[in-house]
Prior knowledge:
Helix content is 42%, strand content 13%. By secondary structure, the chain is of the alpha/beta class. It is found in: Secreted.
Amino acid sequence: MVITWHREREYSSGTIKIFFTLIQFSSFFIKLSAEPTEGHFWQLSDLHWDQKYSRDGDPRSMCHASNENHLLASSKLDTVDYMSAGQYGMYSCDAPWDLIEFSIKGMAQNTVNPNFIIWTGDNTPHVKDPSPDWSVIFSSLRNVSNTIKKNFPNTTLIPVLGNHDVFPEDLYPAEAEAFYRAYLIEGGWNELLDKQAQQRFGKCGFYSLDVTADLKVIILNTNLYNVPNNLTHDQDDPCEQLKWLEFQLKMAESKRNKVIIAAHIPPGYFERWIGPPFFNPGQNDRYVQLIQTYGDIILTQVYGHTHTDSFRLIANEKGQVKSVAFVSPSVTPWLHTGGVNPSLRLYSYSLNGINDYWQYYFNLTGMAEQTPTNPQWQLLYQATVAYGVRDLSPENMLSIYRDMLADPKVFERYYFFNTVGHVFEECNAACMRDHICTISHLMVDDMQSCQDGKHVLFRNDLIMTTHFLNIVQRAKVVEIESLILVSVLTALTLICIVIASIVAVVYRRRVYNSLGLSSHEPFSPRPRASDYSPIISRDESA
Length: 542
């Protein structure tokens, strides 16, 4: 009887387990049917709308009205590469409203129902005449968000603060609730965020948003770490954002969820001009270390700020790429040098990662040459097709990166995309080394090693190390040649100064001699008494 009772209990317990297992499976499939596990999202970045942009403006002064416009107009025919300020902008200026509106409409025309839109900041121009104040900033935020919502009424819009969304630019304080809540009230972002996101954003400009039960977007205010932001230089973790980020990543890991990290300024360096990192060094390295630790649950990272098209590989100490960061180019055509074509990016994603993206662009040069009556956004490239990979997983992005080192044609393709099809200068070996180093060396010591010729990611890969050393050796030759050229030009300048000085001395002596002066006597514009003839009066002559 006892044995029989135990067996009946075992059967009963097994039945209950099966019953609950079936419930779990059914709820899992209901969840799958209710919420998509894959979809699309747009990234819209660096609009830099200039409300003073004028089609009659001076391209040398950000296309603002100038008293010298008549002089500029008269010299147009003498300038071969002159490009007037068009309806949709030009390379030396920030974006007019026509380009902003055209961009948002272009997104709507090239997709039906994206799951969400990530708007990665910077909405006011790079001008100092004067700098955009709070009225310009808040009006820009309201106009852009209203236009996006008008074209995407049923799509979640996820806003991000950029370093040009504040007055003065770059200066974001820590723990200033009234300051950040102004974006919600005056900027109209309270209409975009739910109550929980608003509460978190109001603390310091960062928050999180659940787009599905399995996917969270973490929006960071990386402007707090920006080197020019002297309001937070003395703080290790302004607003405890890094502590909060680690907590969010731990929670996602415990729930086996995925996260997308979105911010304006990326960690690491700018690939076109290597200088200090974007973040303060200590905060930069701590941020990268968090990505290394929790890379398995980070679906991807998206950033803006640079106005260029690139990506970053974040690997652990074993050389395993744990996460990929995509840096999207800008809507504004303005760049420190040369300019870029305006751009939009559409991503395809699943819970396994980024499947693909489509990079759209608007060819300003083509507009100036052809002046089409019905301008359209064009597809510059589809990432998987351009690079010949199945998806954009960390493994495949590493494969693309390896091809960039080994095959010059692959790097040339990447470099063409880097300025959105507007190549304004060739990339020599030093330029190539800087791009290669920036993509995979985000921490401060690693970048220094890479610049010195030690590729940290490929330290155990003899073949890739050989390819990289070849680039570094050619880069050193270029830098030596550049140094020699600078030295020669400096020497020629000094020689010219010396020759000009000698000529001036010789000329001066000739002037002295022609006046009968001693070469040692200083020249005086006043005549001497002996130079005058005596005046004899009539009385004396009589």
